[in-house]
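Need residues for this backbone.
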């Protein structure tokens, strides 16, 4: 049973990593195409990531750094976490917007 749980947790971990890499690109397609269905076109999402790999990964790294900084909001009696997390997601949005601005044809 324990070995089965280990494999289950490893599968969940791998799935969550994959989702965290793909969901921002899906969100970008939904926003710029103004269609929920655009977020489900996986071929075009992966093409967007491939065409903008460097900038896309840089956007994710910037978000991870902003997310790390947001954790220091606990120092402000836990109240500071909420505005700083909001700031981290705004940073992700700005970084992804700059990625699209650098190569708008890649949205398909």
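Answer:
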């Amino acid at each position: 049973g324990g070995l089965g749980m280990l494999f289950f947790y490893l599968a969940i971990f791998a799935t969550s990593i994959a989702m965290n890499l793909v969901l921002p690109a899906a969100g970008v397609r939904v926003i710029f195409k103004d269609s929920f269905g655009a977020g489900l076109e996986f071929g075009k999402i992966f093409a967007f990531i491939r065409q903008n790999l460097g900038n896309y990964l840089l956007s994710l790294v910037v978000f991870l750094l902003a997310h790390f900084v947001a954790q220091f909001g606990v120092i402000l009696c836990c109240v500071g976490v909420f505005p700083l997390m909001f700031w981290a997601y705004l940073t992700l949005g700005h970084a992804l917007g700059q990625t699209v601005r650098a190569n708008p044809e890649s949205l398909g």
